[in-house]
């Protein structure tokens, strides 16, 4: 059992919370699983290059720089697969740049990672807006309910394209209020079905 799983979700969906629960659950069951945040790896690379940019503003840098750092991050992330049975990559289907929507998994990155499963963590648009308003630790753009609905649909559209290209199934897991443990269990069950069966 070895494989890469991509877990995505729009900002405010509670993806990080679900993935923290997932790591604990995997550990309890004796499963070697590691979650790596793609954006954190990109931040580390930028810092090594002497560029100190807030993580919420990487998307405002040039597309050329984003592509370069994304490629380097992908190479570093893949090195972890040798040590783990399951490598879960926490990322986004897209980021909104000044030039338009930029994919979190462009073709070269998607082919390099060759995921076994793609997961979208979702919540109701109303819950996402509420969570964003409560989270003062991030520098997120203020968005209307209609913007959040659009972002959810756009993520699904990109995920379906990634599925066609990679051959990996797409699973949508709902992260309801106060039910992140259930979402984490659902995630682990799906991963095991794909990687073991």
Describe the protein's architecture and organization.
This protein is of the alpha/beta class. Helices cover 49% and strands 18% of the residues. It has a five-stranded parallel beta sheet, sandwiched between helices. It has a two-stranded antiparallel sheet with strand order 4-5. The longest helix is centred in the C-terminal third of the chain and has 22 residues, at 145-166.
Set out the fold topology:
Layout: E1 3-8, H1 15-28, E2 33-37, H2 38-48, H3 63-78, E3 86-91, E4 94-97, E5 100-103, H4 107-113, E6 117-122, H5 125-134, H6 145-166, E7 170-174, H7 180-196
In short:
The chain has 197 residues and is an alpha/beta fold. Helices cover 49% and strands 18% of the residues.
Helicity level: 40-55%
The gyration radius over C-alpha positions equals: 16 Å
Summed up, the helix count is 7
> What is the fourth-level CATH superfamily?
P-loop containing nucleotide triphosphate hydrolases
Q: Can you tell me the CATH architecture?
A: 3-Layer(aba) Sandwich
Keywords:
single chain; 197 residues; alpha/beta; Rossmann fold; five-stranded parallel sheet; two-stranded antiparallel sheet; 7 helices; 7 strands
């Amino acid at each position: 059992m070895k494989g890469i799983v991509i877990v995505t979700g729009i900002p405010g969906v509670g993806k990080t919370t679900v993935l923290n629960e997932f790591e604990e659950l995997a550990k309890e069951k004796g499963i070697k699983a590691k979650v790596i945040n793609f954006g954190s790896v990109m931040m580390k690379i930028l810092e090594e290059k002497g560029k100190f940019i807030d993580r919420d503003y990487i998307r405002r840098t040039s597309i050329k720089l984003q592509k370069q750092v994304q490629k380097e991050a992908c190479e570093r992330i893949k090195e972890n697969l040798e040590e783990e049975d399951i490598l879960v990559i926490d990322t986004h289907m897209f980021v909104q740049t000044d030039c338009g929507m930029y994919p979190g998994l462009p073709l070269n990155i998607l082919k390099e990672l060759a995921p076994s499963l793609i997961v979208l963590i979702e919540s109701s648009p109303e819950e996402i807006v509420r969570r964003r308003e409560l989270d003062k630790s991030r520098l997120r753009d203020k968005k209307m309910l209609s913007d959040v609905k659009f972002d959810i649909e756009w993520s699904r559209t990109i995920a379906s394209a990634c599925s066609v290209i990679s051959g990996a199934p797409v699973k949508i897991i709902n992260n309801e209020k106060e039910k992140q443990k259930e979402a984490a269990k659902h995630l682990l069950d799906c991963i095991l079905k794909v990687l073991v069966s």
